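REQUEST FORM: STRUCTURE PREDICTION
Request ID: SP-0412
Submitted by: Lab K.M.
Chain count: 1
Length (residues): 306
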Amino acid sequence: MDRIWFEAQAPSLNFTGGEPTLSRDLPALLQHAASLGFKTVVITNGRRLADDAYLGELIAAGVNGFQVSIEAADPVVHDTMVGVEGAWAETVQGIKNCNARMKTDAVTGSPEFWVSTNTTISKINRDILHLLPAFVKEIGAKSMSANMIIWSGLALKHAAVIGTYYTDIGPFIRQIQAAAQEVGIKFTWLSPTGYCFFNPVIEGYGYKGCSCCGGMVAVDCQGWVIPCSSTPPDWGRVGNLVTTPFKDVWGSELAWRFRNKEFAPDVCKTKCADYDVCGGACPLYWHFVGTKELDEELAKVGGSFK
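STATUS: Completed
RESULT:
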């Protein structure tokens, strides 16, 4: 943590997982991060925040924000996605507890911390996404975001049931955006997508691309920098911040390979005029899903996206 602050000079620190609230060290880590000057965010399923005393510990430790995962306005759909009966009720209570504890800073006039929600779009929840913005606003969140399934871990095992693809994601993003605008809640799209399928710049979300070893520093619990929090172990580790200066880790060969988008499909590099902006989207996606979608899209436009 000290290397990230003093050497990488990163301004913010996100605690994710897995589920970070399962770590007994989280309050102490938040407190140390705050003492250094980090803005801190806990990315959580929100279930432990239903324990108001525990939430109070995190607030006292100096947390700046919570991003709480909620997968649907419907409890059955949410619980089906996360695989735990009763999880929805705990998550919703956690969000409500955050809002009940939120106070305004007397000097700045800003909330002492914020709470936002995030939703992963899958085959299970995508047909009722339009209900989510109104519900999120009702339980007190001021903003929401969404992302695609990340093709890693258990998502690979259950791909047939939950998988969403670049070719069909656009309409569902627009559906949430329209519903969010209608109820007056801010919506942000997070995932990289192939710009030939869904261009986030044109759609008003700004640049979205792979941030492996570029826009973020992903560090595991043993101090290893990994390309991102979702890359499998056999994709390699960049270096260890416990034993190695940040500049040596960040300047390693593997880090540069990810920054230079070496893992993007060749067709993106050679056939697409938007490649310099898009960067080929998520390398995990192409590795596990394949490039059939690209080949089919390329055939539609006569062999070149230029």
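NOTES: The CA atoms of residues 40 and 53 lie 19 Å apart.
Reviewed by: T.R.
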